Amino acid sequence: MTQIVSLSLYRFAGLGNRLWALAMMGLGRRALARTPDIGFWKLCGSGTGEGFTPVPNTAVYAILATWPDAATARARTEGAPLFRRYRARASECWTVLLTPTSARGHWSGTAPFQVSAPPPQGALAALTRATIKPRILTRFWGRVAPISARIGSDSNVAFKIGIGEVPWLHQVTFSIWPDAETMAAFARTGPHAEAIAAVRAEGWFREELYARFAIHSDAGTWNGASPLARLEVA
Fold first, then answer.
1. pTM (2 decimals)?
2. Per-residue pLDDT at 57 exceeds 50
3. Domain regions of the chain by residue span
4. Euclidean distance between CA atoms 135 and 120, whole angstroms
5. How many Å separate Cα 225 from the centre of its chain?
6. What angle separates helix 137-153 from helix 190-202, to the nearest 10 degrees?
């Protein structure tokens, strides 16, 4: 079987729904862990701005999970009790299913993604996760603004979001690109390349994970449409 990774994003309107979503970061853990067939999972908040910032976005939350196959992933993200509760409260939601094509590093001491598919020839998704050392927080977040601005202005990026388990310390970036060449060109130049060089030279992260995925399918909308529609137009 081919492992499938799901990333489900939920947007909440109104103070009551946002407070509920914030509380579920702790209260939802047991229900999510009990979901049949689920493997690795994380409940995450999000950042504001393009890409990610240290300022939390109280309206958007995410559930990332791994599943044994696509049929199971689709059935659970649509029908499992916790996912239904999130969807019932949300004003908008979108789930993308992904197949891991490369992964190195760890997340909470685990290598969560099982690579069984070849690198995609077309569109792909990239995920970077890091635990930031507290002593370099100021330097790390000082690098973020120009990277966030640049990725936000890049018309080649079909989708991008910053999420995380713990504000400021645990950060995840997720983005979708039309092809590997376009993504690599962004990573090799400008403020992003400078930040990577600083990470390596100064050892900013306690733990890090880098993964790429082929895009399997999606359901729902984000900002009124499927983000994958931008790939089809391109």
1. 0.86
2. yes
3. 4-233
4. 38
5. 18
6. 160
